[in-house]
Fold this sequence. Notes:
The protein is of the alpha/beta class. It is 34% helix and 20% strand.
Amino acid sequence: MRPRSDAAGRPARFDAAITGLGMMTPAGVGTGPSWARIREGAATEAVTVPELAGVTTDFACRVPGFDPAAVLGRRRVLQLDRSSQLVLAAALEAVADSGLDPQDWDGARVGVVLGNGIGGAQTWETQHRRLLESGARRVSPRLIPMLSANMTAGYVSMEFGARGPSLVTATACASGTTAVGTARDLLRSGACDVVLTGGAEAPLTASLVAGFSQMGALSRRGHDIRSASRPFDADRDGFVAAEGAAVLVLERAEDARARGARVRAMVSGYGASADAFHATAPDPECTGAALALRAALRDAGIGPDEVDHVNAHGTATAINDATEARLIREVLGQRPSVTSVKGVTGHSLSAAGAIEAAVSALTLEEGFVPPTANLESLDPEIDLDVVAKAGREGPVEVVVSNSFGFGGQNAVLLLTRA
């Protein structure tokens, strides 16, 4: 199936229908519980993590109450890194939510595209400790498939008999967003009829958290960890590390309608770019990020003044939030409302963009803009309509979801109401 074109031969707007959602986040196990706490604007779900003892920042956000053995079976859990456990659970929920039956689909036309920047971090740290303490013969023979980032998608494809392209995107904290955009491109090109897409990360290891802490990226509000993640707040001091996963089922809009599927929202635009500026700091001029945002608008055929809401990257670091605010103001103006859900979920790195794409879809479906948790005093330099305290009811037609990562990675999705 060739992508549609307009009279001038240019690619026409392409809407990918989101027909299934699965979420495993620090806000809850499953899409319903996660969305309920995000709607509420609950305080950060941070806890002290025993594995982080001795690290300057010893707290993070875990998925509360997640029992992987109950979902996947004890034997299989022993063969999977935490990141794969989370994404498989999210994928099972998303496929069930879509109403598709993997027994009936043509597996060769089903793809998997997931964001994962670090791979099996917990497996790596555990097995390295075993090597040092007990010798090489005690290292697990499952180490390599548990560690390899590509197996995040590999295990999902095996679970559902998806024999189309199986890809993992690694664009740092933009990985989940990059994955969703890439999945849409596979549908648009005609390579796939269905794509399971999203992201996963389980980075709560001593070495990784220590690395982020040493570079000054993490909050040090150990005295009040539930209010530590404070996007856009004048008193923000860094992000709170988190684990999580989200999976979205994408289909062509016409295919979803033909089978009578519930369409939760549309992915109508995607843009990506690089800052070409610095390894970890965003370009203060927003040149690269603006390219990605404008590309998403152009891809969807939507003007800046038509955007109702921005699901911001909003990590709660001083530079990131200020730079993103400048980007939004310069490209979209002051009209759209702005929310960062990381005030509730913390920052799950490669999974963040996927979680936020799912939240954007729910915002459109329900006509509800969630608040930014822990925002007590808006930074006076951030001249935007940042939603705080309570969410807002009302129709939402167009949402932009931003993600930015180390290396100057920028990815933007534009979602529209079904």
